[in-house]
């Protein structure tokens, strides 16, 4: 009854089903790995944001990279802003997806080292963005600021191309080593996204808190792939049963058709033969 499974068509169907099962199981495992990675990153961010503020000198130093565990840590710094060497970071958006600039201002610490401070977002004056925009002034004199420690930006991490030939005092990416060369100073690695003190008149706009990655979505995808893997043998069995029933029904119908055909003409009995003339 199941000899049709040896046909070319059903051998191919069976092989495809056998390949789909481990493939879907592996895709589910991959989605679970993605879930664990995202959940771990979310936990790192939550731990960093919940940690007590520390002086920036305890976490950052010239030439050192900001680690994953240090990212988003709240830090404090005491010194003064150097607006003469201020630059703006091009093609940055706010929460409403308006295009503008981030203001990057050197902050000179008491020991002479420099901390790069992203003071926030301002809108662009026009579509060309060729002229240096009008930038709100920071507090004058010595001040203590608070912010989130961030690593240097790269094209690989941000997807932003580091273009050349930009207008004066405009950059594409925040790079502490490059800024150290431009300023001729000892610049701490990474930068700080300022959160306090609050700007006058609400400008520049402070950068928002980091969002959480949707790890639950990867968990749902993993369950989905495993359900698909479990459905493959069930679907294969249903197809086999249906094929078997159809073949059995076809065989019965063929047999019934043969029985219902008229019987072949039988030779007449000798006593019924007509008389010879």
Automatic annotation (TrEMBL):
Localisation: Cell membrane; Membrane
Composition bias, Basic and acidic residues: 248-261
Keywords: Cell membrane, Membrane, Transmembrane, Transmembrane helix
Record-annotated membrane-spanning stretches: 219-239
Annotated stretches, region: Disordered: 248-277
Membrane topology, from the record: Multi-pass membrane protein
Coiled-coil segments on the chain, per record: none
InterPro entries: Surf1/Shy1, Surf1/Surf4
Signal peptide: none
Family statement: Belongs to the SURF1 family.
The protein's name in its UniProt record: SURF1-like protein
Organism: Streptomyces edwardsiae
């Amino acid at each position: 009854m199941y000899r049709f499974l040896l046909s070319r068509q059903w051998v191919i169907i069976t092989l495809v089903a056998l390949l789909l099962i481990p493939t879907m199981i592996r895709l589910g495992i991959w989605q679970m790995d993605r879930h664990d990675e995202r959940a771990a990153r979310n936990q790192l961010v939550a731990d960093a944001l919940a940690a007590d503020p520390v002086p920036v000198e305890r976490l950052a130093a010239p030439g050192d990279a900001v680690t994953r565990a240090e990212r988003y840590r709240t830090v404090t710094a005491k010194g003064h802003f150097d607006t003469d060497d201020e630059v703006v970071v091009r093609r940055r958006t706010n929460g409403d997806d308006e295009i503008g600039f981030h203001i990057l201002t050197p902050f000179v610490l008491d020991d002479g080292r420099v901390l790069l401070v992203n003071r926030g977002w301002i809108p662009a004056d026009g579509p060309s963005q060729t002229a240096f925009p009008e930038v709100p002034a920071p507090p004058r004199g010595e001040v203590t600021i608070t912010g989130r420690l961030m690593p240097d930006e790269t094209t690989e991490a941000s997807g932003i191309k580091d273009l050349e030939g930009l207008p004066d005092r405009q950059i594409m990416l925040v790079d502490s080593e490059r800024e150290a060369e431009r300023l001729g100073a000892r610049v701490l690695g990474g930068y700080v996204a300022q959160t306090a003190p609050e700007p006058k008149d609400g400008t520049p706009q402070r950068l928002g808190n980091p969002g959480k990655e949707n790890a639950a979505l990867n968990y749902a995808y993993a369950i989905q792939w495993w359900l698909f893997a479990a459905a493959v043998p069930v679907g294969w069995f249903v197809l086999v049963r249906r094929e078997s029933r159809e073949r059995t029904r076809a065989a019965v119908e063929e047999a019934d058709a043969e029985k219902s055909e008229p019987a072949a003409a039988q030779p007449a009995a000798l006593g019924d033969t007509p008389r010879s003339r």
